[in-house]
Design brief:
alpha+beta, 8-stranded mixed sheet
Length: 414
């Protein structure tokens, strides 16, 4: 017990130190950027040394934020070890699954799946992991997959999530308490479909790891596949084309906000190709915020990559205040004009006619579909002396409310 408390205290001190270093660097960044802006006011361009200093500190800020995020994430993960509290059926599945993972003995696992009327076999895709392992994989993905962390996540048992939506609402009106009621019109409904596609990873284990009874293999496989799954998901949720993968929100038709219609994503135009406006550049961010209806702004977030965030970090409002603010506490998100910033490295960089910044209520705007069941197929032959574990899950995704997400397009014209 004392060992755990000491480790926790050490981790907290490490996070606190990293956060303090990050905040100190941000103060240095503000001072250097203030010098750059002052030089721009007195001459056509900033001093080269000052500009390089700003960029260097900005890059250091990004690296320190990455390191801080890793420390916070590491602390949020459970230790690899035995767990207690499983139900009898869950414990039976866990023990059978562990026997399969360690030695390839699938007899107990076949018995368990037969009882559950689930007939997954090594020949057709492996065996289902225990429920606790599947939940742990989902929890870890929520921590490291940026879009999943802010989107709505639905679990389904079929291959497709079908969601109806009203293209025209039912008629309504006011009436006296004893007045006659006319029959209301029936809403016109259409249907959105979100098919799931197979996502896979293939972690490898040594014989020594599999023989070590202290290591909980459920936790190990969840830890091994989280990064691989999160990286693939992150790309698909942003820009996936919907063919054997989710449809990313940037893959839908994009139009100027004035021409927005259901089925398209509305864009606010900067008026400059590949750049913020020359005059009051931060004002275009305000325009983006208010392109979103009030009901969606309550839970809205910015989504951009680190390079774009570095550019935004230099902007000030009309009162001379920086519009980007660092996180208030370790593990929290930075704020841009009061709204949290979600870093998604798969967002495009700032460039001509690109849409590197998204703003919206992604919980209402984007849905992630997880088909129940994660399967593992043990392969001791393909990479001797290592044992491969071919792990698959089915994931889908797409925009479910086209009014909930807006994009900032760096273009001279719509």
């Amino acid at each position: 017990m004392l060992k755990l408390e000491t480790k926790s205290a050490t981790g907290s001190a490490e996070i606190a130190g990293a956060f303090e270093e990050f905040m100190t660097s941000f103060e240095s960044f503000k001072e250097a950027n203030d010098d750059r802006l002052a030089q721009l006011e007195t001459r056509m361009s900033g001093d080269v040394v000052t500009v390089e200093k700003v960029d260097r500190i900005s890059r250091a800020l990004d690296e320190q934020k990455k390191a801080l995020d890793r420390l916070v994430l590491k602390r949020a993960r459970p230790e690899l070890g035995r767990e207690t509290g499983h139900s009898a059926a869950g414990l039976e599945h866990k023990e059978a699954f562990e026997s399969y993972m360690r030695s390839g003995d699938e007899r107990l696992l076949k018995t368990v799946e037969r009882k559950a009327m689930s007939y997954g076999t090594a020949a057709d895709g492996g065996y289902l992991v225990p429920d606790e392992t599947e939940r742990e994989i989902g929890r870890r993905l929520a921590l490291v997959s940026p879009i999943r962390s802010i989107a709505t996540v639905r679990q389904v048992s079929s291959a497709v999530l079908k969601k109806p939506f009203a293209t025209s609402g039912m008629s309504t009106g006011w009436v006296a308490e004893t007045g006659s009621r006319t029959q209301t019109n029936t809403a016109s409904l259409a249907e959105l479909e979100f098919p799931t596609a197979e996502l896979y990873a293939m972690p490898a284990a040594t014989g020594a790891l599999l023989e070590d009874s202290v290591v909980d293999l459920d936790q190990w496989i969840a830890a091994e596949i989280e990064t691989a799954f999160a990286e693939q998901e992150g790309t698909a949720f942003v820009s996936g084309n919907g063919t054997n993968k989710p449809t990313g929100f940037l893959a839908y038709d994009k139009v100027a906000e004035a021409n927005w219609a259901w089925g398209k994503i509305g864009c606010v135009i900067t008026g400059e190709a590949g750049a913020f406006p020359d005059t009051s550049p931060a004002d275009i961010l305000i325009d983006t915020i208010y392109a979103l209806k009030a009901g969606y702004r309550q839970n809205a977030s910015w989504v951009m990559n680190r390079k774009t965030q570095a550019a935004v970090r230099k902007l000030k409002d009309g009162d001379g205040n920086y519009v980007w603010q660092p996180p208030a506490t370790p593990g929290a998100r930075a704020l841009l004009m009061g709204f949290p910033v979600v870093e998604a490295e798969d967002m495009p960089d700032v460039g001509a006619d690109t849409t590197p910044i998204a703003f919206g209520d992604f919980a209402r705007g984007y849905v992630v579909v997880d088909r129940t069941g994660v399967r593992v197929l043990r392969d001791p032959y393909s990479a001797k002396p290592y044992v491969l574990f071919y792990t698959t899950k089915r994931v889908g995704g797409g925009v479910q409310d086209f009014d909930a997400i807006k994009l900032l397009k760096f273009s001279a014209a719509s």
